[in-house]
Amino acid sequence: MTIKPGVFTLRHLLASALSAAVILSGCTSPLDQDDEIALRETILNAHRARMESVITAPVVQVDREESDVTAQMTEERLEELDDTSGIDAYANDPLEVGPDLTGELNGPRVRMTLQQAVESAVRNNIDLRVAKLGPGISRTQRVQAEAVFDAVLFADLNYTRTATPGPLGPGNGVGRDVFGDVTNGQVGIRKPMLSGGTIQVATSASYTEDSFSGVQSFFDHDISLAVTQPLLRGFGRDISTTQIELARNAESVASETLKQNLIALASSVEQAYWNVYVAENQLLIQTRLLNRTVAERDRLLKRQQFDVSPVRITQANSFVELRRADLIRARQIVRQTSDALKRLINDPELPLAGEALVLSTEIPPEDPIRYSLLDAVAVAMRNRPELVIALYDIKDASLRQRLADNLRLPLLDLTAGASLNGVDNDDLGSAIGDTFSSDFFIDWNVGATFEQPIGNRSAESLMEQRRLERRVAAIAYERQAQDVIIDVKNAMRNVINAYELIGSTRAARRATADNLRAIEEQEEAGVALTPEFLLDQKLTTQERLANTEIQEIQARADYAVAITQLFESTGTLLLRNNIEIATE
Do 477 and 419 belong to one domain? Predict the structure, then answer.
């Protein structure tokens, strides 16, 4: 293996942990500051422990041992075997997929690169189109939360008619009934404040006709200011903006969820693309195997009058039909994998209901890649959407705990208000002018409201619930971090194993092809070959060659998928495919 030391320091590796701490810092009040510091310290320590365990991990290039079988072959022999077997040997073979559901034998086919497939899926995939709406929905919810502090314009108009009988007076026993008409209107603005209180400014006017007072009618005008401010429960910007912060976090989580869906989609498209590639080549291999078996069967038929018994003919026929069954299955797999890819890319020009085949144009990579466990773990800790979402879950739990802590306080609200009053007998304009005259008539009031449940069990229980929920969120983050590390390590092992399997399956294919070459050379040399030899050796060797070819192709596709999954495990698959996140 080629190994080069990695140049890293623990300080750089803690960058992801520090970013997590920044997410959790948020708006911290003195009531829960100690808990926040302890939580951030716990996350930093956990990251530090993970990084220290891989700090010495070097940069490694995947490698494999050379097969001792192929090592004994000359370069000329290897080139000959690769020309007659393997991927390149089928470059000019036609892909015969049989009739489609419309009965057409050679229906339309579309060749597509991997990048084209991924880009089409990002543009058109139905599931992703739904996911793209998530951030927009969260954005509207955040606006709704912020709108709580919008000023409210209010107005009301009412008319009141009173008719009250008066008590009997002394002496003559005559009472005085009271009749009155009051028309009142009010308009004003009310605005919630970040401090948790509300402020209201209003102006009102009324016209009164009263048979009881000495003045039969008059106009009244008032301008009022009222303030309500919590002093304990519900006090402060941290409490009043909690729902806004939760909505903002939800918006960020929606963006990370979209990123997560994009990564999953890109990975699924790449896997589906290489499945199509494997299915195509498997069909080519099965087609050639059937043709070879039919040719050998026909040779036996020509010798039927000489030295071939009916038993051997029927045995050869069974080989032919088995090969034909494998071919039928291979054709179906081609159409199924094509439809699976079409569903993911959802190209409007390639409707899923249509029978057009989507086929591959690329060959899976087989060049060795370099990797570092240290790099991969550090990058995954910074980029995996699941970890970012888990951090926001912790922050949400902290915000809810902060709110629950405030709800334990007594209700103590301060109310204050003042109003300027004006009155006139004749018209409203004069009453308004009287409001601002030099002789101010001012009403004012100050009050306080206190309330506290005896025992306060509900609030205390809610606080304990929020504290436990926060612990659950922190533990969930730790579990998610472990899952990410497992994903990274498994992805790396898959890359290593797939690369080694390419070598072993290629060696097996070359050895089997060399075996078949030797048998065919014996035939050409005129060596006496019995029907038993043809059935038990040549046909079996042809089948083994087809199987090893399929295994090699599958190994190469698995290597490509393993590389994709490695990028997926580190959260960098979008960067690899140059995919930018766009919401609707």
Answer: no
Nearest to 256 by CA among 138, 337, 338, 164: 138
pLDDT of residue 330: 96
Domain co-membership, 195 together with 250 = no
Q: What is 162-186 written as a DSSP string?
A: EEEPPPBPSSS--B--EEEEEEEEE
Structure confidence at residue 72 (pLDDT): 82
Q: Which domain holds residue 14?
A: 3-143+243-401+461-576
- What HEC string does 61-102 produce? ECCCCCCHHHHCCCHHHHHHHHHHCCHHHHCCCCCCCCCCCC
Q: Minimal CA–CA distance to 434: which of 220, 279, 118?
A: 220
Please tell me whether residues 225 and 115 are part of one structural domain.
no
| Backbone CA torsion sign across 420, 425, 427, 430 | negative
pLDDT given for residue 158 in this prediction: 94
Paired strand residues for 247: none
- Could you tell me which residues come within 8 angstroms of residue 245 by beta carbon, excluding any fewer than 6 positions away? 26, 27, 399
Angstrom distance (rounded) from CA 75 to CA 295:
30
Q: Which residues contact 345 (CB under 8 A, 6 or more apart)?
A: 112, 117, 120, 121, 124, 125, 269, 358
Q: How far apart are CA 143 and CA 225, in angstroms?
A: 28
- What per-residue confidence (pLDDT) applies to 167? 64
The token pair at 497 is 């194993």
Looking at residue 35, its pLDDT comes to 59
| Diameter of the chain measured on Cα atoms | 154
CA angle 280, 284, 285 (to 5 degrees): 115
> Secondary structure of the chain: what % helix, strand, coil (to 5)?
60, 15, 25
User: What pLDDT score was predicted for residue 457?
Assistant: 94
pLDDT, residue 182, reads 87
CATH number of domain containing 254: 1.20.1600.10
Structure-block tokens of residue 257: 């969820």
Question: Which ranges of the chain have pLDDT less than 50?
Answer: 1-14, 18, 27-33
- What is the model's pLDDT at position 14? 47
pLDDT of residue 8: 40
pLDDT of 583 = 63
Cβ-contact 281, 359 below 8 angstroms: no
pTM metric for this prediction: 0.82
Distance, in Å, from the CA atom of 205 to the CA atom of 187, rounded to the nearest integer, reads 9
Q: Which two tokens stand for residue 291?
A: 């043709």
